[in-house]
Description:
The complex is a heterodimer. By secondary structure, chain A is α/β, with parallel strands linked by helices. Chain A has eight helices and ten strands. In chain A, strand 1 and strand 2 form a beta hairpin. Chain A is globular. Chain A starts with a strand and ends with a strand. By secondary structure, chain B is α+β, with helices and mostly antiparallel strands. In chain B, the strands form three sheets. Chain B has a six-stranded mixed beta barrel with strand order 4-7-12-9-11-10. In chain B, strands 2-3 form a two-stranded antiparallel ribbon. In chain B, strands 5-6 form a two-stranded antiparallel sheet. In chain B, helix 9 packs across helix 12 and helix 9 runs parallel beside helix 13 (449-476). The longest helix of chain B is centred in the C-terminal third of the chain and has 55 residues, at 367-421. The radius of gyration of chain B is 35 Å and the shape is elongated. Chain B starts with a helix and ends with a helix. In chain B, 39% of the residues are buried. The A-B interface holds A 38-39, 42-43, 45-46, 51-52, 71-77, 81, 83, 85, 87-92, 96, 100-101, 103-105, 150, 156 and B 3-4, 7-8, 11-12, 355-356, 358-366, 479-480, 482-485, 488.
Amino acid sequence: MIELQNVSFQFNKQVQVLNQASYIFHQNVFYAISGSTEAARNATFSLMIGLIEPEFGRVLFNEKNLKHSSPEEILKDYVGFHNQHSRQVEYLNVKRNIELAMDISIPRKNVNIDDVLVEFGFDEDLLEKKVSDLTPYQRFLYDIVLVVLCDKKTVLITDPTKAFNEKEINLFESKLKKLAHEIGVCVVLSTESKEIAKLADKIVVIINGKLI
Amino acid sequence: MLKRTFWYIFLRPSRSFFILFMYFSLGSFMLLGLKWNSSAEAELEYARNKWGLKAIIQVNAKSLFEAKANSKSGKNPPQTGHFNESSSNSSYERFLPSQIATLSMKMADDVSNLPEVKSAQYTSIINVVGKGISPVTPAGRDKSKLETTEGIKKPQFQLMGVLKSEVLDAFKSNINILISGSDISPADLNTNNAIIEHGLADKNHLKIGDTFELESIDGNRTKSFIVSGIFISGVPQNSGLAGDLSFLSDKNRIFTSVTAMSELSGGFVENPIVDKAIFTLKNPDSYEQFRIKAMEKGINLFFYDIYKDDTQFKAVSYQLKKAISIGTILTLSTFIGLFLFTTLLLLAIRKKRSEEIQTLLLFGESNRNIFTQLLLEWMILIVIGFALAIIISPIALDKISYILKEIFFLIQENSTNNIHQSGNSYADVLSKFTQMETVLFDLDLKPNFYDQMGVTLIGLFLSVNAAVLTLLKVLRMSKRNLLMDSDLEESI
């Protein structure tokens, strides 16, 4: 659970991104943050996981003030991402990249790795590919697999659907809902598309620095 | 972390091989430079001992001429010299018919017992003619006649009385090489043994054990000699000597003991007179001490000259110092090269791996662990590269050092030719060049355990410092901007 309490933040000390904003992001829920600019949404992401500190207010992560947690701790144990930059070591294949992420993080208990890989469509051929050779949709799945296997409590996703086809968008929705509802992850999607935002359980809009 | 390290090394074989090859090369050159340097320094010390400083004592002919002139004008010469009133038949009789100072072997022996002296050599030389033995002459001038002027015959040979022939410069520097028989040594005192040049032996069909006779140029004395050794001279026969002076050629030089020579020159056999007493000192710095002690032994500077000769050591040391400076330049260049290579390549690699570093940070890896991983990867490659260098390069070093020596000699040969053209005698130049060649080709470039450890430690020290300096930025990288819309490379 991530709780923002009266958080204020100015982007580059000029643009007010959040102004005494308060909101609680729960586990098992798929949220979509919409509205405002992409930079504002990304800044909100960074505030949510403590990569940047609010000028006012505080952010609690599982009731613990993020101020007292190191970025390593948060990134390692709690938060996963999907954005335009794939998290990969370019000379390693998909399988070794997953292995690498699991080495650094704490692996999720009671999960069969092979089952997860099969469920997300990673057969032997795909596992041998470089991450950069994957399609946008496969790269999205790769990041979701990392969230599942590395026991992340939250995943922050920058909308990748512009590069998806219709079928992939449908699968995208089902995978994220499964991730939230079955695995218990707090899924937060940043999108400027109202259509895509509608796929989420809850839509959060940034208006005048407030999260509504 | 080790798994990641090995992935990096083994999944990028071409890059790893390139880095290994570079460290192998740098390590090898560092080993060569250090070894070349230390060997040349050791060889300099060896040359100091081998060629060192020679102190020479000989009769001061100039003073004696003055003494004779003073004597004629009624002035008395100093009375403290070693005069040999009965030596009118000595080798100096051509200069001073009466009352001359001579250097006897006994006097020289007294000086040779000084603690500063490592070894002694006595030499005397006279010109003689052969009886039934013909000199080697340049082609087309074989019909030399025994012309005489006022009863003095034209010399055909030089007879050199020595204590030990093997320590003569020509033998030490392998210009003259004994090919059969034995050297003249103190055991040959009071014998008729002589060593002659191979060409002379061939021309007169002489072999070991054969005898031949020599006669003084005034025709008063004749002596028979036994061939006890045959040497071959590296100096070309026609190296600038005219036919009339062919008795000065090494082919016509005969070596015998100082006693046998003294007999032919009319001196005492029991206490022969020598032209020069040459003392090799244990320590070149003790020359002044030696000089004072020699004077205390009765070497009066009015009658005798004492002077030092370190030209051979200087000739060799000059070249060795050049060799040392080459080694120093090579070593320093390698040190700089190692530091620059490590720094520049790591900078490039750090830049190229920025995405990988960002990924590791987003996976939750700490800056310190990433820094350690990058350093570890590099250290493994450096250690393997240097290990290969110290294991394999001794084999390659032989070849490389031989090529370097060849290049070195090519340069030196040109400068030697220049010296020759500038008026130095061929034999002198050849002698110096041969000494240098002997000393430099003796350079022991096979690295030992300490050389290898030294190179490894210095190499690691330089490389680790360069790597740490270059990778320090990884420790300072902020995660703050990782999720912002910043360029990846800016965050690195």
